[in-house]
Amino acid sequence: MMWVILWSSTTTSTTTVNSSTGNSTDRLALMAFKYGINQDPLGVISSWNNFVHYCRWSSVYCSCHRHIDKVIPLSLPSYGLVSSLSPHIGNLTFITSIFLQANRFHGEIPSELGRLFRLRVLMLSHNSFEGTFPFNLTKCLSMKYPSLIDNKFQVKIPIEVSSLSKLIFMGLYKNYFIGSMPASLGNLSSLIRLNLSENGLEGSIPKDLGRIRSMKYLQLTLNKLTSTIPSSLCNLSALLDFKLLSNQLSRTIHPDIGLPFPHLIQLSVVYNRLTGSILVSLSNASNLVYIQFQNNDFT
After folding, report:
1. What are phi and psi of 122, to 5 degrees?
2. Would you say the C-alpha torsion 30, 173, 218, 287 has a positive or negative sign?
3. DSSP string computed for 130-159
4. What's the pTM value of the predicted model, to 2 decimals?
5. What are the per-10-residue average pLDDT scores of the chain (299 residues)?
6. Dihedrals φ, ψ of 130, to 5°?
7. Sequence-distant (≥ 6) Cβ neighbours of residue 148 within 8 angstroms
């Protein structure tokens, strides 16, 4: 429901669209997308044909305002579609939202998506995408909500991701990302939620993350992160959810870590190698309802 709200306000009913089939770049791009689908068990794209204007096709929504007949969102979540992702989707140059989550898409994300400079929402979670990180996505400078959760990426997170300065949410949870977390993540000054859990990330947590004052959800669970929790994270006073469980973090937690988090609701550092004593400063986090410290070396 949340994602539907994101695009419903930018679209209008297609009932006013004329009955011609159209011959635009958008129609050709959608037909190429359709022909690339190997399985459509629910027949959701069966209405995509040459007898109906593409703005009347199921799950296709067009603008009726300034850029008339241009596809704005494409919404095909949870339909069991089996296919690689057609590079022709990069020709939908006015599209702002793509919802393809919970299908059976596979292969690499085509570099042509980098042409979609109006794209704000990209929901590709719960598929089987793999290969290199879609580097050209870093050219989608309007991007706010990219979700690649639960796929099969086994590469490093590129430092160029910091060019997406409007990001609010970054979901890379449950993949196989490797290497260290790029310090350039600290440049994402509008980021509210960063979820990199269940990957193979190594090295230390970048102190630069402490510059993202808007951060409310920082989730780095089930990686191979080492060293200590940087004291710079005490700058994240808006944090609600802070999860670092099941890593290899060590050393003593900053003694004042509880003081700057008055809104904190969940804190978990279970299954690490942290030392020292349980911190009295956590009493300042008066909204804390979920806390896990066990399986460390606290005294």
Report:
1. -130, 105
2. positive
3. -SS--GGGGG-TT--EEE--SS---SBPPG
4. 0.89
5. 42 41 82 97 94 94 84 97 97 97 96 95 97 85 97 94 96 96 97 98 97 98 96 92 96 74 92 83 82 88
6. -150, -165
7. 124, 125, 129, 171, 172, 175
